[in-house]
Amino acid sequence: MDMSADRIRLGRNAPGVERLEACLHGQAFAPHRHDTYAIGITLSGVQRFQFRGRTWHCLPGQCHVLHPDELHDGGAGNEEGFRYRIVYIDPALLQDALQGRPLPFIANPVVDVPRLHAHALREVWDIDSELDELSRIGIVDALATWLRGVAAGTYRSEKRIALQPLLRVRECIAAAPAVRHSMEELERIADMDRWTLARQFRAAFGTSPSRFRTLRRLDHLRALVASGSSLGTAALDAGFADQAHMSRQFKLAVGMTPARWARTMA
């Protein structure tokens, strides 16, 4: 990848698993949040980011692990820029491997990766390898095992989550993210009150139902733009009030404006 300019190259991906490689300079990302785990490895340069009130530096060979829906930014720690690979994992996939346990909580977002673990995670960083169902499950299982190992001793609770009702709510929202489902409708689907639903949804998937809906709208918008729609038309089709509202939400989720995102895609 050309190190002289900002570039983002998408890998071969599958539902719930998005991999990419990026080369970036300066302050690459404004503060933003996404509803996936973001697990990256620095390949060259120094990656610097603000997270949980501190400045962190991720050096070549180190991983950074960002929990869903936590605010962070990102940029280069020196003038040369930095290059990294990253995988975004849908927490619902991890729940399949975790079997209803709460999501692993990683206290320190910068993690050294011993050689044994690096070998186990090798397929995660091979972003050009095909992701069929078998390899996708292998990646998710490897990451779930690794995350639980990193988080050992930091679990807040091992109480099992009532996962199936929450999955029904999640699927309802994801099927039509532009629709504003009422809280009463979601309560009926889950057969639980709104406060329990909100608390359990976050424990299972790392974000709120409302935030999950916004992120799915942005997924739909990116697909529309990629197929040729203008930002204004795509914003309305995805359920946003207007393009300005969409742009604010896009920057909060991605860390850059929609126009800059389009320019950096290789």
UniProtKB/TrEMBL annotation:
Keywords: DNA-binding, Transcription, Transcription regulation. It holds the Pfam family AraC_binding. Gene3D superfamilies: Homeodomain-like. It comes from the Bacteria. SMART domains: HTH_ARAC (SM00342). Residues 167-264 form the HTH araC/xylS-type domain. PANTHER family: HTH-TYPE TRANSCRIPTIONAL ACTIVATOR RHAS-RELATED (PTHR46796), TRANSCRIPTIONAL REGULATORY PROTEIN (PTHR46796:SF2). This is AraC family transcriptional regulator.
